[in-house]
Amino acid sequence: MASGLRLSGKTVLITGGASGIGGAATRAFAANGAKVAFTYATSADAAKALEGELRDAGRDVIAIKADMTDPGTVTDVFRQAETGLGPVDILFANAGGLLKRSRCVETSIDLWQEAIAVNLTSTFLACQAALRSMEPRKSGTIVLMSSLAAFDGGGPGASHYAATKGAIATYVRALAKEVGPLGIRVNGVAPGLIGTRFHDVFNTPEGRKATVERTPLRREGTPEDVAEVVLFLASDSASYLSGEVIQINGGLGMI
Predict the structure, then answer these.
(1) CATH number of this structure's domain 11-247, picked from the four choices 1.10.10.60, 3.90.1640.10, 1.10.3380.30, 3.40.50.720
(2) Which end of the chain is more exposed for a tag (fewer CB within 10 A), N or C?
(3) How do residues 92-126 score in pLDDT, each as one tens digit?
């Protein structure tokens, strides 16, 4: 784990924190002394297993089932986190995903709106709830989940996904300007090919191999590769870093 992060006693809320990149972030923050609340939507078994694992290790952790696209639910998530662990110091808005691939001319308005809800609205609502707590305290850190798709347009049939992730990259900069004067930092991460269930579902072995061959580091990333960057951005080690979206893709973004 990265050193000098000074996260002991901090309260972290991670949306979509049961598995994949979110799960790696949950473990990383807990290992560095933070108190962690994380949400999950459908991964109940993974969430309960992770919660049990970390509690057995003596960590302060709460798993919360939640639909992060619903304003009332998001408010309740923050209430549960703050009641159980204290005011949220760090938000990692990770929840989201590619619902299904669809060419633009074949994309229904329902799919378009669902992509916006799952990726963009969930991020907005989490940020809004976090800032309601952070602004009066004039402190806090937010990290948002964008994607390489925000910069290269994504793979085939992912224009709706890429659009939402591009919006999140812009939202990072807008929020950083808005809340920076209050002492609150906002940054983002934009992963490329990371070895998670996302690519098991939405990619093919041939597609993954071709991407690796185009990647300067010649490998897929791991959830831990992303979690370590999130950890750094959330920590005092990044105290003069705000409004940045860090691409984590083994150099693929240069091509």
Answers:
(1) 3.40.50.720
(2) C
(3) 999 999 989 999 999 999 999 999 999 999 999 99
Q: How confident is the model at residue 208 (pLDDT cuts 50, 70, 90)?
A: confident
Catalytic residues: 146-147, 161, 165
**Residue entry with tokens 């809320």:** 13
Is-contact 190 150, C-beta < 8 A? yes
Bigger pLDDT: 24 vs 195:
24
Answer yes or no: are the C-beta atoms of 96 and 145 closer than 8 Å.
yes
Per-residue three-class SS string for 10-58: CEEEEECCCCHHHHHHHHHHHHCCCEEEEEECCCHHHHHHHHHHHHHCC
Q: Which two tokens stand for residue 108?
A: 């229904």
Tokens of 115: 């992509």
DSSP class of 117: I
Residue 1, pLDDT > 50, answer no
Give domain limits for the chain. 11-247
Please report how the helices 20-31 and 44-56 are oriented relative to each other, as an axis angle in degrees rounded to 10. Answer: 10
Structure tokens given for 176: 């950083």
pLDDT of 143 > 50? The answer is yes
Model pTM score: 0.93
The 10s digit of each residue's pLDDT in 240-251 is 999 999 999 999
